[in-house]
Automatic annotation (TrEMBL):
Taxonomic classification: Bacteria, Bacillati, Actinomycetota, Actinomycetes, Micrococcales
Motif Histidine triad motif, chain ranges: 140-144
Domain HIT stretches: 46-155
Keywords, in A-Z order: Nucleotide-binding
Name under which the protein is recorded: HIT domain-containing protein
InterPro entries referenced in this protein's UniProt entry, alphabetically: AP-4-A_phosphorylase (IPR052908), FHIT (IPR039383), HIT-like (IPR011146), HIT-like_sf (IPR036265)
One Pfam family linked to the record: HIT
Gene3D superfamilies: HIT-like (3.30.428.10)
Superkingdom classification of source: Bacteria
Length: 183
């Protein structure tokens, strides 16, 4: 057993360097996104690749005929889902009537499941179409479903450009898929 006086516990105020008053929130899963940069997305579409993987590996919670639902790999909140058509196209006006109907139906089911499983108080829904509109994957249409709670807002996103996520992606996927109705 190590003597506590020999190796004292350190916090952000006493770590090496000049104390800055910041606490550190470790999010190592984001390193893959940071290191890869935008280049892989220009060559390999993650939304075309996901359906070819197992549900667990692709973070898929439900599969329909023309569209599917998966967790966002870089979520704004725990339970942040994406509804994607299988077909590769970039803007909503290119969707077939069947794709529009299924994207809408899957969005409704996802909201019901998240309300039940995650006990969220509301949602942000949206599609960023085109790089200029903020789409991270501009070439493959996808709709965001972001669950919101009355207590989920704090200073992190505004001051520190950081979002605290209280659950691991695999645990969130299992809970949402477990709550998805059998069709």
């Amino acid at each position: 057993m190590t003597d506590a006086t020999e190796h004292p516990l350190e916090d952000a105020a006493t770590l090496a360097g000049v104390p800055d008053g910041f606490q550190r929130l470790w999010t190592p899963h984001r390193m893959a996104y940071i290191q890869a940069g935008p280049e892989p997305l220009k060559h390999d579409c993650p939304f075309c690749a996901a359906p070819g993987k197992s549900d667990e590996e692709g973070l898929i919670v439900a599969r329909g005929e023309t569209a599917y639902v998966l967790l966002n790999l870089f979520p704004y909140n725990s339970g942040h889902l994406l509804v994607c058509p299988y077909r590769h196209f970039s803007t909503y006006d290119e969707a077939t009537p069947e794709e529009v109907a299924e994207i809408g139906a899957l969005t409704q089911v996802a909201m019901r499941v998240l309300r039940d499983v995650a006990r969220c108080d509301g949602f942000n829904l949206g599609m960023n179409q085109g790089e200029v509109a903020g789409a991270g994957v501009a070439d493959h249409l996808h709709q965001h479903i972001v669950p919101r709670w009355a207590t989920d807002a704090n200073f992190f996103p505004i001051i520190a450009k950081t979002k605290a996520l209280p659950q691991l992606l695999g645990d969130v996927r299992d809970a949402i898929q477990g709550g998805w109705p059998i069709i």
